[in-house]
Request: fold
Amino acid sequence: MSERTPIPVDSPFEPAVRQASTVGLWVRTIGGPVVWIVHFAFVYFVAEAACATERSGSNGFVGSDALVVAIVVATVVAMAGCGALLVTARRADGDRVMARIGEVLGMGAAGATLVTGLAALVVGPC
Amino acid sequence: MQGSLVRGALDPRGSDAREIAALWWLLLALGAAVFAVVAVALFIGARRNSTTDASTARRWMLGGGIVLPSTVVAVVLGATLWAMRSTAEQPPAVEVEVIGHQWWWEVRYPDHGVVTANEIHIPAGEPVALRLQSADVIHSLWIPELAGKLDLLPERVNTLVIDASSPGEYAGRCAEFCGLQHANMDLVVVAHDAAGFTAWVAEQRTPAADPATAPAQRGLVTFLAHDCASCHTISGASAGGETGPDLTHLMGRSSIAGGLLDTTVPSLREWITDPHDVKPGVLMPAPALTDAEIDDLLAYLETLE
Amino acid sequence: MSFDVAAPSDRHGPIGEPVVDEVTGLLTDPTTPVSAPAATTEQLDRLWDDKPGLWGRLTAVQNDAVGRRMMLTGFFFLLLGGSVDSVVMRLQLARPDSEIVGPQLYNELFTNHGSVTMFLVILPIFEGFAILTLPMLLGSREMPFPRLGAFAYWTFLMGGLLYYSSTLFSAVPDVGWFAYTPLSGPQFSPDLNVDFWVLGLGVAEIGAIAGAVEIIIAVLKLRAPGMTLARLPLYAWAMLITAFMILFAFTPLIVGSLLLELERGFGMHFFTPGAGGSSLLWQHLFWIFGHPEVYIQFLPATGIVSMVLPVMVRRRIAGYSWMVAAMIGIGFLSFGLWAHHMFTVGLPAIVLAFFAAASMVIAIPAGVQFFSWIATIWDGQVRWTTPMLFVFGFMITFVIGGITGVMVAAVPFDQQAHDSYFVVGHLHYVLIGGVAFPIFAGVYYWYPKFTGRMMSERLGRWNFWLLFVGVHVTFFPMHIVGLLGMPRRIYTYPEDAGWGLWNLISSLGLLLILPGIGLFVLNVWWSRKHGQRAGANPWGADSLEWALPSPPPQQGWTRLPIVHSRHPLWDQDELHRGDDRHEQLAHALGRWPLKWRAVLVVGTGNGEPEEVFRVANTSIWPFVTALGTVGIFASELLKLRLGALLGAAIVIGSVVMWNRPSPPLMTEEEELAFERDHGVPVRASGSLVVARWGMALAILFVSIAFGSFLLSYFYLRLENPVWPPAGVARPGLGIAAVVVVLFAAAAGAVGAGRRGILAGDRARLVRGLAIGSACAVAAVALLAVDLASADFGPGDHAYGSIFHTLGAFTIVLASVAVVMSVSTLVYAVRGHYSARRFSPVDNVARFWAATGVIAAISITVLYGAPYLTS
Reply:
């Protein structure tokens, strides 16, 4: 890593501070885990809704078949999301250490997404 | 209440508990192995005074940090999911409604017209479905030798399927904190052979006989006159209260007061004289009875075989 | 001066004399850079000092004072709740059928033990420690919002006292630290006991969130020049992640507690099955907090270990980036585990399956952390000092707790172990091994920094071994007795249960733990006067705080350090050399401005100077705000509704006073002169950058709270097949549409006002704020009238309760926004704000934007969801 980082982009006479945007940094670093937790929450709520449907009979939002489809689609989309993040993170230039952290987290998140999705499918609906 | 009842989760007597015990031994073996790896690595690492700059980090991080836990987790998760799949099978032979109360268990057999308390009688070797629900707060039914625990909720019915591989008695208790006397909310599961279960059902279906002796007859009058009947049912004796345990076959049960006392006449006397002294906070009010009335009442209760 | 050590042993490296040499040798180690004093030290000390006397104590905001108080109060509650309770409980359980305490007292004891240790001990100790040390560790002079820090302390203290005051009313909470409904509801706990639990701890929870906001911004923005994110000490990473977790975990709990109190005090139905409520909703809300809470306690502990261990083995931590990734991963995963506390409530199998999966997956990042420490030990040379002993005790004990943790994540096994003593054993291995031992290590390690003296090593060794052996003797048998069928939370057990021997052994373990803790207290007290003198860096450590004198001066850094390395004291010969711009800036900030407390803000990622701002000085208002807050809660406790209104008025008034603009002490020209010389904006009227972060986190907090309400709404919706209940008409949509439009107009008008002041046009600002406030008041009034005219009340059924509660939440949120925009309007009319000094306007505009979005979603759900049927 370079010991001397370049001079910041603030221009001293601007009234508003122009900060170097850190959005990209956040996305590259914790994008993977965010994808995982969104996937997790989605699968949980869909399952809760489907099983409430089964308990009460008529009050259905989500049927069992729809549940399985939803889990498969969500898992595939989430893993694709993790993959896309990894690819963009590789292309971006920035701090090497932070890139490494993002890479590890992205791969971990993909794995965790797969494991949670599979676990739900193996046990089956409700 | 017998010492022989204590065997715990690792001495399984039912299929669910057996499955769980097998899972436990796997978990223990894996856990011991992981602990051994970590402890050995720590102690060797601590004694090894490395003077070189060469780093073993990568090896450790990949081997210990990723491969070891991933493998263990994969095995454990696989075993867990396998055990979860195999628990739901076969239609039950008997259905029992178990209703949790602060701090006792109501046990009903809708197909047999039997109601009892703090005891679940089942035929051995057959799956029995326990339909669990609570009348007040959340309780949890735990019979370590037969099955894992399951909660009794006020808002929905949970089903726990148990079986006992051989006739015998298996201790159970409430495992979810449910208020003041959570500690004294025990029950016992009695597994009979097929004939024994049929006989038990038949016996339970018989209403209480009219008392034959004079003290017992006075005892029945006392029972009905002092509001006992507003909480307790004795079928055949026009007592139909539903707040407390059904007493029709009281003397046939091994214990009273949620497992706190054996069912003997002296302990019944102790209980009726002042239930709050025996079990502080119990919802049964202390009946205002003279000693003579208590004698009569006991004489009557003794007939409820 | 003797340095106490145990007998030498050549087996295990330098114990005995060599330790003395090494440690004392390092006191004068010429290779360790130290912070350079400046001629202005005395002036800066005076500037940064809190005022003397009682008034000074009440107005103190300095991070030293706040941090120290939080830690001491945390330790005080530990002795009260952690120790006394557990001694009595272990005495009671030592023998079967024992009658030392009855059921009521026993239930109070375990409720208190759990609640106090989870809410009032570990959290404030860690937050306090972070507030105390982060500025030194990061090369900054203060925390970003000193007044918020003071507020955090006061709410935490007053909440704890309110909770403990239940003893005076003989209404000690007795439903467990988890307070499951319906046991904790009005029907089964009609007395005040549960109210003390909900309200007392509620105040402390607010303090926890305030502290978290401080910590997040401190780590992200208030660092030395050159300290990039990748150079953050691991402890700072740990606290950053922990603080975010506090925000995400405590907020749902606060919402849950609010719903419980509405049910208890106002007759609403969220958790009552009979009226459409769900007892499980409470469990979800509680464990969404409760499980991350374990990791909220564990992560800072791993942060401490990651600081202490490398120093004690003289080796950089192995795999820094892995370590950071593991901690972030744990932070996220911990929010996917809450239902593993609910494996026995009868959740659908599919839900159990993926909660089990997530619970086990978290073992992988924990494994990464563990093996990073092992690799570091493997590559280094261990010095067996007391902090290192505690680190070892941590590793051995915690690994057992982690293994049993994976076991209870296996659903079927958990159905045996759940709520049995197995879990009690497991959680104490995690919390004592995984959290308490690192705290002890940290105290022994950092003590010399704050007192200038070392703690006694001889006492330290006794302290460690007594605790280590005692903890295992006490808690290991619990696993066995749990598998034998002993449930938790029972005040007695019969002799023939066969649990007597194991319980007796557990209780005897206390005979080791108690003297261990006694020696610790003795050591802390004794060493203050008699410990060996410590220099700046007695351990030869690598992180910045060890370059400061021990104890450090008030303002910490007279001259800011310049960081080129993750281990500045190991890699840098000089702390004040570096990039010319950095050097000049650090030098200038040592001498200028001496009339206000200046703090440097750096870029989040790159650590480049971004702003110099004036941090808030001493103030009584945080104390008054805390008093008002506790006043609201105490009045609710005593059912004095007028008192609650008074409390709310105090809170509003004191928050306005707290934030009122103070004279900037410097003209815009003076600011510009410094900017020209150093290329960094100066804000003597208060930070723009830090304020934006503060507002972003406030919005995040509000959004999480709103999300928790939405979760409750839809959970109740799923539990009720008929929604709204039969006989209740669906709400009309006309008024709802008007309200949404008015809220959008308000947000838009305030935004336009902000753009006006950015262009230097104060009239546009005034116009925008006035129009915005008017629209908002109209919207609030309309919504309130519509809610009040509903043909059902909040106490009728769960639908009515959540409908009115979510509506009221929207009204309260909008009212807060109105207070903000009106007070900003007042200041604007009086001539405050300019194109350079507009930070409050910026914040109001952002808050209004968020309020507009939240109100729109809220009203859509309230009025739209009843039309959503299958």
Remarks:
- Chain C touches chain A through 60 residues (CB under 8 Å).
